[in-house]
Amino acid sequence: MTTFDAGHGSASPPDPGMLDARRLPLLLGIYFGLHLLVRLAISTTLALDEAEQVLLSQAFQWGYSGQPPLYAWIQHILFLVLGRNLFALALLKNGLLLLAYLFFWLTARRLWPERGQLVALAVLSWLLIPQIVWEAQRDLSHSVMVLTLASASLYAVARALTRQTPSSPPGVLWYAAFGALMALGLLSKYNFVVFAGALSLALLSVPKGRALLGNPRILISLLVMATLAGPHLVWVADHWDVAVRSLGKVEASPGNNLLLGLGVLLLAGVSFLTPLWLAWMGFFPGLFRRILAGRQGSLSLLVQRYLLVLVVGMAVGVLALGVGHVKERWMIPFLFVAPLHFFSGAPERPLPGGRVRWFRRLAAAAAVAALVVSGFRSLLGPTLGATTRLNYPFDAVARTLEEAGLDREAILAHNAWFGGNLLKRFPGSRAYVPGFVLPDPEVGPGVFVVWDAVRSEDLPEEMRRELADRFGLDVGEEEPRYESFPYRFGAGREARVAFLRLGG
To answer: What's the number of CA atoms in the CB half-sphere (13 Å) around residue 249?
Structure first.
């Protein structure tokens, strides 16, 4: 069995897939450009993560919520340049996804510099992972950012491993960039720590990796990482209850059944790679027999060791913490490397052309399906009994609030989805939501209190506390006003909103 790292020659005939691999960046750019246009066309209502970014990016802070602040920082800059609009939101999301694919493509080229067929197959494999091809488009933000940073970090390591020699280690610039990537990864999503830890341990198991991390210049990486991530970590220490709020999602408890926890972890991993592993089994069943075989090059060996360390480490973590719940999307920054491991077991000769073509067609069909469903989900979903957040009539809600006098007053909403959608429509206001660390009001004296009356007829208690703590206001005898609005293409479903104006 032979695998290829940069610097290893090949006696095989010219690779028929090389041209396809070189075209991938252009095709991916067109694909994500189409996704951007589709998002602009389908609805002016923001999805959950989109609205949260509008809410958080009102100002630059070292932290806002139970997620790190990097996405909000970049979104804030884009809003300053392009305005607080849907285009700036869609541009960042699709730009990050494009970068994630491109870094993965560059890593695959380092692994197989003369085998474009394998490069194309590895990159196209992402299109058969629903959490990447669909969920990342539907409504994810921090997970998209951490995928991009993990992909970029893997490429940085791959580049170093395939270029370094004992007499010519990576320079100061590489170590500074590596430290910056580690810091930015941490600032994108906290589970990046798991990826970085597994990658570091895998590097220590490879001779070239030990030389890389053992070089005194690694101190530069640590210094850069501490400089960039340090202020946020200080914020975390000062707002510990807010920062660790998302940890409750794993439902960790020492009393949880340990076997159940391992089963949940296994199910999440298998589900994340479904239907990709079924496609691999159908088109390239012979490669499954090679999946645990030894790898020849430093980079292919690193990928194998990374996955091994990751699986063992996550299993130990689940057992130690008593984790009872694992979501598939949490696997995004961990298992995105799986295609590199699978195809590094390919024989020296090209894979059967017919099977490769059908795999490409399946991946292309998945990409087109994601694009089509994105375009029609808000239109056809309600007729199928699946009303989405994009169907919510926020434009009508905003018109009613404007008629009631909302202009530059502060907005207090019951959740980030409401708050972000209203702020997008009233850019001169400030929006607030219980549980988020946001700057004090800098607008007019009045406060518009708005909430979903379907979920709660009366003013939610956490909003009462927020009114008292942040604004020094009490509802008193004020009675809310209730209005109903039909969903867009909602097949008869109605939204019901309650609001009242306090102060001023």
So the answer is: 13
Three-state SS for 337? coil
**pLDDT tens sequence across 72-125:** 999 999 999 999 999 999 999 999 999 999 999 999 999 999 899 999 999 999
Q: Which residues contact 84 (CB under 8 A, 6 or more apart)?
A: 54, 57, 423, 424, 427
Calpha distance 88→67 (Å, rounded): 20
Closest C-alpha among 308, 314, 365, 351 to residue 112? 351
The ranges assigned to domains in the chain are 18-238+260-273+285-346+356-373, 389-502
Instruction: Let me know: does 448 contact 411? Beta carbons within 8 Å.
Output: yes
pLDDT at 266: 93
User: Which residue spans within 44-84 are E strands per DSSP?
Assistant: none
Whether this model's pTM surpasses 0.90? yes
Whether the CB-CB separation of 122 and 280 falls below 8 Å is answered with no
CA triplet 141, 158, 160: central angle to 5 degrees?
120
Q: What is the pLDDT of residue 140?
A: 92
